[in-house]
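Quick entry between incubations.
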Amino acid sequence: MLRPTQRLSSRLNRTEMSWREKIWQINWSLIAVLTAIASVGFLTLYSAAKGSLEPWAIKQMIRFAMGIGLMITVAVVDLRFWMRHAYILYAVSIVLLIAVDLKGTIGMGAQRWIDLGFIQLQPSEIMKIAMILTLARYFHGASVQDVGRPTFLIPPLLLVLLPVALVMKQPDLGTAMMVLMSSGAIFFMAGVRIWKFALLLAGGLGSIPVAWQFLHDYQKKRVIIFLNPDQDPLGAGYHITQSKIALGSGGLFGKGYMNGTQSGLNFLPEKQTDFIFTMYGEEWGLMGGLFLLGLYVLLTAFGYAIAMRCRAQFGRLVALGITTTFFLYFFINTAMVMGLVPVVGVPLPLISYGGTAMLSLLFGWGLVMSAYIHRDLPIGRRGGHDD
Amino acid sequence: MYHDNDRTKLFSRRALMLASGKGALISALIARMYYLQVVEADRYTMLSEENRVAIRLLLPPRGLILDRSGIAMAVNQHNYRVLVVSEKSPSLDYTLDALSQIITLTDHDRARVTKEVRRRRSFVPITVRENLSWEEVARIEVNAPDLPGVMIDVGQSRFYPLEHLGAHILGYVSAVSENDQSDNDPLEELPGFRIGKAGVEKIYDMALRGRGGTSQEEVNAVGRVMRELERREGEPGVDLALTLDTRLQEYAAQRLGDESAAVVVMDIHTGDVIVMASTPSFDPNAFNRGLTHDEWKELSTNPRAPLQNKAISGTFAPGSTFKMVVAIAALEAGVISPEQTVLCRGHTELGSIKFHCWKKGGHGSVDLINAIKGSCDVYFYEIARRVGFDKVAEVANRFGLGVHTGIDLPNERPGLIPTRAWKRKALKQPWHPGESLINGIGQGYCLTTPLQLAVMTARIANGGQQVVPHVARDLITEKDSAPRPAPNWPSCGVSQRSLMLVRKGMNAVSNEPGGTAFRARIEQDGMWLSGKTGTAQVRRITMRERETGVKKNDELPWKERDHALFVAYAPEDAPRFSIAVVVEHGGGGSAVAAPIARDIMLEVQKRERARVASGQNCTDHACDHKEHG
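Done. Structure below.
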């Protein structure tokens, strides 16, 4: 898949690339897979609107086109630029997170947006990327010995816990878990010993009763309902019960495109956003589901391949961090609609209707692409030339 | 850069581990998808269909009830209702205000609507008022533009055009109550559904109901109907033709007037009940409309019991109308011969107890025929004593007294003809010899219904065939009706001679001077009737009263007056109809009951003649039998 390019490998020590060279390096197969996934989304949104581009499919297409533009822009920007600005981006995200706490728009029972007029800014989305960039920068210069020192791990741990706490406070359990898990993946890739994770996990499990106190009532309810959805099939367990009915009734080959009765008759809640996979599964069946899952796996494989090919630790960590975040998106969403994990507000990446998630995801893939384009670039400890 | 190599190796190892973890999660997803979409697919498909499809029952029209000549007695009427759909009305209060300017709305109606609206989903129509007049409907329609969300709907309600006439036989319908739900008919779940609660409406309820159709509708998550998928029409209820003649019924009710009374006229061969009237009556429409508290109180506490069908649920001492049965029992037992005479001196004695005849001076020497003609109590004391009451009771049962006749109406009471065994069991007392005497003139414990008396007379007149009365012309099953087969009744098991002798006595009662009903005879040729009077005493006459003179009925309060009874058959020479008249606390049988019976019997026969003459008799049921039998 990844064609080693003779021209670049012959200039291993070059620290600067021209725009033309970068454009030449754009990975079009990656864009093709992204477009394939997004197209599944367009089709499903068209069906969700009972065969109409309005109100969802057309907007989603425009956003995707904008997102691809953004992605390419991000990809051709020098990877070192992103490394140098990682901490600043992190600081801005923290400020924005505090800002939503202070004067956020109330939406869906949680304060998550800042209305900038032309776009509703969701700081937690920016934070997902800023977190990865920050940790990748922190671990970029660290040797195996550094990583082995517990004192070395305390600053990044604090860097993770601060935004997690802020996001939890919004409250957005899904995003908090995702930030925590993708950060964990970077710690893991950086070489932190497994027993330390085990220790942390044990500590985390031990603190569940304490954390339970800080959950909002609706979050507690969701967890309880996840554990026993049948206790209240028409009340709060309604979403997940109807979702399972829709998926299950889809069977092997589905009810046919635009023929989903569960979604067509509004038994499915939020069918254009968080529960879009259910609608897709009802209409296309197990085969359709496997096809989509295959596309996601393919995209994940791209991410891994780019990470492995990357020379700089920063690029490797960024590529794997973004890939893992993306993986978590679709895993949590599909597992949620199938009743494997509690209902948390995580969209199906590139498919669920929604602008911010689409743009931030493509921004992320832009970084992965940047890591690909700059895969042979040696990067110094502070993001300068190799020193 | 030594550490860089280590890091790369470590990175590769860790990437592999992370990828394996992700692979495991993906496998879990696939396994779950397989479980939901393949293993459990059938179950979820069913659940999704249940979600999608709602089945609505369609109310079938209830079967009509007609009299023997096809006059409608119970029909279905359009019930115009005004409904309001709250989602289409900008303000419910405003709409109700506007509506109350046009039709009368009580505060109670308004409160109920407001409550219902809050309970139901906003697109569900809520009934504001039922049974609108045509004028009210028109006024609402004209003002429709000012009444957003208001609509008119046509339902079905039962209507009895003849009102009081035949109400006891028809019964009435009303909403299903909790105790009624037993036969698992899904129709019973429908909010507007009415079931038969009395009379033939109850007995033939399942046939009259018909079967509900279904409409399968696709509904969305909030229950709004999107489209109809499939419609299966139901079957309308079976129309029920009765044996009653409403014209005669009307005549009989009119003739009974304000009395608390009952009359039954039946065909002695087929068992067709042609007239069954019980006064006072009630208007069954009131039940469908909903009775007010006062109306209900008046109906249920009236001492003359308008709700009771006295013809089958009222039990009265038969009095002297019982004497034919005693005579037959004695003749069959051979304890008397018709020529044997008994001397009546106005009373007889058994031990130390004196038994009085109704005629103070006595009848003198009487044989069987004269004993019936003059209704001599002493004669029947004597023969009842001779034959023993158990044998009398046995014959009485065979003639339909003291047992259910088996008529197709609910709440028929069996009455009572006492026996030694009954007394021992029910009262835990031995039979007193004097009781044979007192029961032998139809007093004492004896209780019969007017229908039983009509059946008894029919069985005497038809030569001892155990005819069973019925009010439905055809045999009605749950889903169908078929013509009644030609009757083939079992025999009472008594000799024709005994029956002939008794009939001779009854003929003398009505048609010979000195008979107790001679003044109430029919003189038209071929319409003569033969009957028997009865006067049932309801109070005890003390020794002292007998000395000072027995009080006349007029002097007594209503509740203490005698019951007046009369049974008869006609025409005398070729019997066709039997009749029983009971006037509760009406006085003497010959003075009160016999003239009523005479007038009704004359009307019955005239009408029959007119029908035969105009050649309509083929609509008659006897004609059907010839064709089918």
